[in-house]
Amino acid sequence: MRLLNAENLNLEDADVTYYPNFFDKTEADKYFKNLFDEIPWQQDDIKVFGKTYNQPRLTAFFGENNQPYSYSNITMLPKPFEGHILEIKNTIEGALNTSFTSCLANLYRNGKDSNGWHADNEKELGENPIIASITLGEERVFHFKHKYDKNLKKKLVLKHGSLLLMQGTTQEYWLHQIPKTSRKISPRINLTFRIIPQKNRVPSNSVLS
Ligand SMILES: O=C(O)CCC(=O)C(=O)O
Ligand SMILES: [Fe+2]
Fold first, then answer.
1. What is the pTM of this model?
2. Mean local confidence (pLDDT), 161-181
3. Is residue 100 part of a domain?
4. How many angstroms separate the CA atoms of 51 and 166, rounded?
5. Distance, CA 190 to ligand 1 centroid (Å)?
6. Which intervals hold domain Fe2OG dioxygenase (predicted)?
7. Is the CB of 104 inside a 6 Å radius of any atom of ligand 1?
């Protein structure tokens, strides 16, 4: 049911599938309202060419292990999964038959909030990372562009309750962004579930000397 109406974006050098109806309206409304109030949203700074700015959105980071997550000079320590975010994690894991360790949550307060061109290719995520990205609240346009072939790009509107699944070589060959918009719009919550393997775990077949 949740994976109904799946759309494979058929991007070259990538594996991206969009599930518009992952959560029905009742579920999505409930999760938006509760997460908006419950998550301790934080304002981080970003440094661009030595100057410091407020990041143009609020964020929070959840993790199953104590592995911090670093990107753009920001290191985030995980909060535990509980309540609604845990419920969502369990639902996604059941539907995709995949276990996630971490979730980076973004709150786009209005059209001035955005997320610039990037790939989620931090080394903590390993090769060919799988990223399951949920939209709650206001729809926003999501852009893809190929890193090497300027002719390859794609736009799609991410709907309330939808899931965008990026895997395979998507992060190696493509960038994505949420651009600003001058439309007068309401807030949007985005949840990106990721797998960050625990460091320093001794493999079971290793020989300790
Ligand atoms: O808000 C979105 O849909 C994208 C978020 C994103 O790309 C990220 O957090 O890495
Ligand atoms: Fe991203």
1. 0.92
2. 98
3. yes
4. 32
5. 7
6. 99-197
7. yes
